[in-house]
Each structure stands twice: as structure tokens, then as C-alpha cells.
Amino acid sequence: MAEALQHARDYTLSLFDSFVAAGMDAPTRVPQLRIINPPLWELGHTAWFAEWFILREAASSHPADANGNCLLTKGDDWFDSARVPHRSRWTLDLPSTGGVKTYCHEVLDRVLDKLSREANTDEALYPYRLALAHEDMHGEAFHYTLQTLGLPTPLPQTGEVLGAFAPSEISFPGGIIQLGSKAGTGFVFDNERQSHAFHVAPFRMDSTLVTNAQYADFVADGGYDNRQFWSQAGADWLMRQERSAPRYWQRDGGQWRTVRFGKLCTLAGAEPVRHVNLYEAQAYCAWAGRRLPTEAEWEYAALSGHPAFRWGQLWEWTASPFEPYPDFKADRYLEYSEPWFHTHQVLRGASFVTPSRFGSAKFRNFYLPERDDIFAGFRTCAWPG
Fold first, then answer.
1. Judging by beta carbons within 10 Å of its beta carbon (0-12, 13-18, 19+), is residue 158 exposed, middle or buried?
2. pLDDT band, residue 185 (cuts 50/70/90)
3. Domains contained in the chain, CATH given
4. What value does the mean pLDDT take over residues 29-48?
5. Is the pLDDT of residue 164 over 70?
6. Going by DSSP bridges, is the β-strand pair 315-321/376-377 parallel, antiparallel, or unpaired?
7. CB 345 within 8 A of CB 278
């Protein structure tokens, strides 16, 4: 656990230094976009979150539930995401870049010292695991921001081309599975609880993600012009965007080009299509006479052990709205799940920048349907019959 926490903080700081190199460490130098945070604020927030739940032993994320004061005099006013509106994060009187980094180091030193005296139990380690998962997610969010702002990534594991696998279709017999995680299985987020039996009907699913070449056929066949393939919400989004291809695609003569962390490159046909939102994934499926898998079908396939089923390259859109499992109860991080039920959509899997320690076939990611800045793709299922 100590090594993981140290690695996560080193990882976050190395990503933050990419913004520093681009002159975007000060919030006023960062474009004010709804889908990103000012990197300096986000860096401070990750350290504050660890201090809140570990050092201040907060019973929940409610402002009155932490012990003692923040190491920074105005830390709670600056970095509590539940109390600091998104639009105001560009105008806060934050400490200097050096000051925030010093805070990060001080918090981690104290966290590691406290961890060395903790009992090796799920209850004692819960706040550490929560803070680790939180920082891992913000590390991935830093990658989204680098891509959105056209900045290079410093890490070698974010190579430009994802591995390609031979596509096929797998038939699954269906049956009863246990959705959610059982008690005593280590750290899980509240939306994964409670474990419950769920029946999955027989289905057929792609073994791999839809590729750029496959999606290019949809584009070439007028997929963005023919509204019959789009839901009403998707058509409304498309009209606002005036888009004729996925985000970052650029036509260059007879080929497609795309932008990867600020670099224009040829689009690899065998690579999974990424930076598509739910509406685009649904439209492709309608055009192809297919559908998105439900999250239960996706979990069934991922846990089946079938050697042809590949996942972990990109987050995968599912057909399932983000809804609570039966008997849901919010955990200490009150704002993690409950505010987003019924408005967000479930994605499953992981992406090429998700730390391996974070990957789980049961993890439920969730985003608004129109988000196309994330590293997300999709696979398709056959309709019954």
C-alpha cells in the first residue's frame, strides 16, 4: 500500500509537470472548459482528499465530519470539490505551484507515517485505498486534460497505437451471475455494493472493440447525415456540434488523420475507435444492425474466462444507465455516486492509462452521454434471433 501511494503521487506530479512545461500551471493560463479542471487546483485537491479522509479521519465528506484543521489555512475553502463550484476554480487565490507541491509532499509523508502503524484490516485500510483510487482516477483525468489541451504526455505507457486483435463474435449461454461485490473482498466503491443475483439471457458479443476502419465505414456511408440512426438526444447533440466524424478526426486527401496528445498522425484502421460518446456508439450500432451490451452482459463476458474476450484498452460504453444496485447506501465519499444516478451512463473495463491496480471487471465507471474527451470506445452485441 505504501509503494502504491508513493507511485500514485509520483505519477500525478510527473503529469502535472507537463502542464508546468506548457506554462499552464497557473489557473488563469488554462482555458475554462466544462470538462477539465485547472491542473494546479486538481493537484491540490488530490492531496487535500487524502488529508481529509486519512489524516483528519473524516467520517464522511460532509464539511463537519473531519477532525482538526487542514495543513493549509484555507485548504478546505480551496480544494473541497463539494463546496467549490467548478467555474470558480479558475479564480481562487491558490498557493503558488511550489506551495501546492510542498503540500502534496507533506501530506504524503504524514500519510505513509500513519500507514506504518495501521492494522492490516479492510476497515483500517479503507481510507488509504479510497485515497489511492481517487488519485488514480485524477491521474487518468490529467491525461484527458493533456489530450484536450493538445499537450504531450510524458509517460511511455501511453503509446499512440493500441494493440489490434482479430475480431470475432462470441456466444455466451447466459445464466445467473452475482452483480456487485461481496463484503470482505477488499475495497469497492459504494455503487458496486450490494452483491445480488442477476439473470443474463443468452447473447452474442464482439470479442474486441469496434475499430477505426469499421467506424470509418459508418462515416463514409453517411452515418452522421442520416438521422434515422440517431436517438433524439443524439440527434440534438449532433445538431449542436455540427460534426461529421468523431472528435479529433481530420480528413487529409484519401485518408483520415487524428490528433494524439497534440501530435497529428495517421489514423490506424485496426486500432479501436476512441473519443466517441454514447450517442455516436448507439448510432453506429443502429447502422450496423447491432446494439450495445448491457453492463451485466459485459461483466458476464469479462468474468467468463473466454480467451478471445479482450478488454482494458479503452473504457467501453454500455446500454445501461447509471443506477443504484438494490439496497444502495452512500459510503463516506457521499458525492461519489448518488448525485449522478439516472443522468450518467455506465462504462466498463479500463483504458490504456488506467493503472493496472485499478482495473476490475466489476468496476462501474460513469459519464454523461455526450462526453467524448475520455478514452472510451465500444463493442457491439447481436440482437436476439
1. middle
2. confident
3. 2-149 (1.20.120), 169-377 (3.90.1580.10)
4. 98
5. no
6. parallel
7. yes
